[in-house]
Amino acid sequence: MSIMEYNGGSVIAMVGKECVAIASDLRLGNQSLGISSHFQKIFPMSDRIYLGLPGLATDVTTLKEQFRLRLNMYTIKEEREIEPETFAHLVSSTLYERRFGPYFIEPVMAGLQKTPSGAYKPFIAATDLIGCLNFAKDFVVAGTASTKLFGVAEGLWEPDLEPEDLFETCAQTLLNAVDRDAYSGWGAEVYVVTKDKVIKRTLKGRMD
Q1: Which GO BP annotation is one of this protein's (predicted)?
Q2: Of 59, 81, 87, 205, which one has the greatest count of Cβ atoms within 10 A?
């Protein structure tokens, strides 16, 4: 078994019309032994940026704090809020620093990027465990159920989805994919970020 699959877990981010969604399952396992059904994998980095961390649970805890520290340092130094694309590069460089002894995490980022006109456009990105960035205009996935997530998302996702439709698409994609993966599941958390608000919903999933 790969160390990336040791604790299980999956994350997906999707783009909508002036909104973005990010969702994760809630299972924490020790290989096939279930330990917890409410392990948080998505963390708010700012009002407009959310970070999903699927991978080794100890590294999830370590990196969550490290990114928060670097984010605070950026805010103090720059005297402004970080933009999602800049944050993605911060995540990438943090992971690349440790490339010879990497963190076993594949981060997924979702947020709303401010344009020069003052409007907000959705932004999603993912990296591998040494920080190689992957930008996308539809969806990004990571975790043990990633191959299943790709399959379901390809069939369900459409361009320019409204926030409620995006929530439904993202939630159904995640729940259906993790049902086919032994290391993910046990409920889900879905965040939909719009320019006015953030909607968080916790979903029940199969527990067998």
Answers
A1: proteasome-mediated ubiquitin-dependent protein catabolic process
A2: 87
